[in-house]
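Re: export button greyed out
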Amino acid sequence: MNSDTAKEILSAYRSKDRDGADPTFREALKQMESDADLKKWFDDQLDLDRTIREKLAAIEPPADLQAKILARIRGEKLRRSSFALPPAWLAVAACLVLGGLALFFSTRSGGSERFQEFKSDALAMVSKQGGPDLDLETPNLTETQSFLREHKAPCYEALPSRLKLMETAGCRAFVWKDYPASLTCFRLPDGLFLHLVVINKAAMDNADIPAGMKAMGDWHVMFQQKNGMLLMWASQAPMDQLKQVLVALRGVQGVQREPKSEEVFSVRW
Amino acid sequence: MRADIDLENIVSEFYSPLYRFAFSLARNEAQAGDLTQETFLILSKQHAQVRDVTKIKSWLFTTLRREFLRGLRSQSSHPEVELKPEHQDQLVSDSAASQAIDAATALEALTQIDESYRIVLELFYLADLSYKEIAASLDIPIGTVMSRLSRGKEQLRTVLAKTAPPEKISPSPQAKHLPS
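Workaround output, generated via the alternate export path:
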């Protein structure tokens, strides 16, 4: 083996503990013992490798990356077990959601474009097939609130007592148009979910926010303004069930029932 | 070898080097985070198909690179994102701010290496893969991995010599490229 061949082989050498036992390197390492130039080259090579590795090791992943990965993995497992539906039902559900969204967007009127955009984005997020993506999967409301506070996401804590007793599916912290926002998902007794999306009201550019609950396709949605925050509640649960949960919210003057024709053909905001 | 996989331990062990590798490919913090998450999500869905747990490390890096390339193909109209100084600051914690410049320098140097050598170097330095694992990951012969490592390191040494203090890194006086 000549010196150039030895160098090429030793270029792949990492360290004694990882490659010392590899017979591929044995002859080249042995040759180094009698070749001072090769030994000098090899030491320089190890210095270069160490320097590069140290420099690249200074790249740190985001502090919350590990938690996000674990949450997504747990969420995927949960979705595979909890949201599993027969394919026919999935197709029907997808059609209903898409139909409802199409109806809603084709008939909307009034309100700022920004508010309309937020509604569409938020509803698309919660109506995602298989359930919305969550950063944290937990049945514990307190844990979701802590997570959202930690991630500087808005968190509405003055919840009605019935909601505080319910299990959550989890939560998500995200950013909409540079404004931090949050999603918290509650598990309703019949297995459906109640989603709460919270964002700073300033994100809506002073748009008029309509009060009362509305039916949009197979979704029921309600907006509230609390302490400078905009709250969006969304669920596929029956209106009566939501009334029992949400009517206790402070400042809510009952739940508005849209005329049937409006409910089906024209949802106003 | 077939054994149960502890996903949480695997995430804990590999998410940092995977992120660094993703960042070296994407040069974008958000995309690197997404690629890292996506890679582990694929593992969580397919881990039943992983037959040899000792090869999970190279599987992860190979999968991440494949996802990156797939994203490039599907978004070929997107312009490349340059590594801006303000982004470099976000790469590291405040306590490591002084090292950030070094990390950026190393990454910048890697971008100046010929493409065929660069990916081999990235897998060597960032993934810490052996030459055999690199060969399997890129589906190239072992001898090619060695020659590319040799040539790539010489190029890297030359590039760094232009930016780093001369006493730290200097071109090898014996620099000589061997035929692959």
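Chain A is about 45% helix and 15% strand. The button fix ships in the next patch.
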